[in-house]
Request: fold
Amino acid sequence: MDRPPRERAGSVGGADWPTPTSLVLIADRNFGVFSVAWCAYSQGHAVVVRMTEARAKRLTGGDLNTGNDRKVVWQPSRDDRRAHPELPASARIEGRLIVARPEGAEETLYLLTTLRQTAAEVVALYQERWQIETDLRSLKQQVRLETIPARSPDLVATELFIAVASYNPIRSVMAEAAEQIGIEPRRLSFSRSREAFWAFARAVANVDSSEKFEHHWRILIRSLSQSRLPNRPRRSAPRVVWHKPQSFPTRKVQKNNATKI
Reply:
């Protein structure tokens, strides 16, 4: 659990791209399985994964009282090894299992983590996972990553790198504008901020003095501070499946009405 992170690099699009180290994998119950956690843990990264109640019971022997924070050793089950024969014989994750029910929550959280932070800090970190979901939505809709036309893995990875590289500067400027007016950065509209940022980039492309640059920068910050999102209170609702529209009618299977001769 205290192993140092490994320095790694990957080859993308014919070039060597540095890959981040010392990351924290935050995953919900769909990914709270040994193979996913081991993939990050074996690379030297920390994990915070939510487990199902049944899996947490097997890990602790049934002791799931709210407020528990105990050391555990997570080993792959027979099903895990059957589904992932590449797991080494010594595969195991040393960590802690935190059982918590945040204020206002309808469900109890069972969090397996390798972090050293307090249980309250780990729970608060997991609750920030929803911000990742909103970032992914922005990447898909605003940076147009919902459909990637590339066909090779290297080209797909290159497009992802470029999209994220163009997304992060806009979020950084939004954070600075939000700090100046004392609100959360996510209270600003990303699409409006993006348009203001590109207008700023075009305006300063040929500036020849720091005074002119600072002038355009102040205009950018003022424009972003005026891009607040309206208050849209939404009631919580159960998850439902949104069916994708189809351009072709549904085929109907007709019974065989052939006449016997």
Remarks:
- The chain has two domains: 9-127, 146-225.
- The chain is about 40% helix and 15% strand.
- Residues 9-127 form one domain.
